[in-house]
């Protein structure tokens, strides 16, 4: 168990340090930070210019210094991810950051092709290899579920396995003012 903190500004670093001192593991996250992407100008690669790349490397060092046990490096050029992985002794986990991080992660919704959106032809990030396309199968199953719930076909007797003894049910109905069961 751990907390993931995005960014390496002074307030985040202080928070990370306090958490680590309190015995709570902290994983850093630099590059594209999805929970605060709007402050970065949207879902855009980070560290594509030398000044920004140097800042990412310094952020990685600061996160390590604050006690983070690892860090996610998201949507940065492979060369930058490689350099910052070499600059720290903690593991780096890349997502859209090339092949030179300590490990890799993908959002399973993306790699399984689960996401479909009627207004966007492409919702899977361009760095994500899609290993399957189960989105239409999932959507069809969800629509069947919705239809069965609306028609009260589901859950039905098969998926309503918990019963009360007749005497207990009659007592319950009497206590709440309902007619006895048939």
TrEMBL record:
<dbReference type="Pfam" id="PF02548">
    <property type="entry name" value="Pantoate_transf"/>
</dbReference>
<dbReference type="GO" id="GO:0005739">
    <property type="term" value="C:mitochondrion"/>
</dbReference>
<comment type="pathway">
    <text>Cofactor biosynthesis; (R)-pantothenate biosynthesis; (R)-pantoate from 3-methyl-2-oxobutanoate: step 1/2.</text>
</comment>
<dbReference type="InterPro" id="IPR003700">
    <property type="entry name" value="Pantoate_hydroxy_MeTrfase"/>
</dbReference>
<dbReference type="InterPro" id="IPR040442">
    <property type="entry name" value="Pyrv_kinase-like_dom_sf"/>
</dbReference>
<dbReference type="GO" id="GO:0015940">
    <property type="term" value="P:pantothenate biosynthetic process"/>
</dbReference>
<keyword id="KW-0808">Transferase</keyword>
<comment type="similarity">
    <text>Belongs to the PanB family.</text>
</comment>
<dbReference type="InterPro" id="IPR015813">
    <property type="entry name" value="Pyrv/PenolPyrv_kinase-like_dom"/>
</dbReference>
<protein>
    <recommendedName>
        <fullName>3-methyl-2-oxobutanoate hydroxymethyltransferase</fullName>
        <ecNumber>2.1.2.11</ecNumber>
    </recommendedName>
</protein>
<dbReference type="GO" id="GO:0000287">
    <property type="term" value="F:magnesium ion binding"/>
</dbReference>
<dbReference type="GO" id="GO:0003864">
    <property type="term" value="F:3-methyl-2-oxobutanoate hydroxymethyltransferase activity"/>
</dbReference>
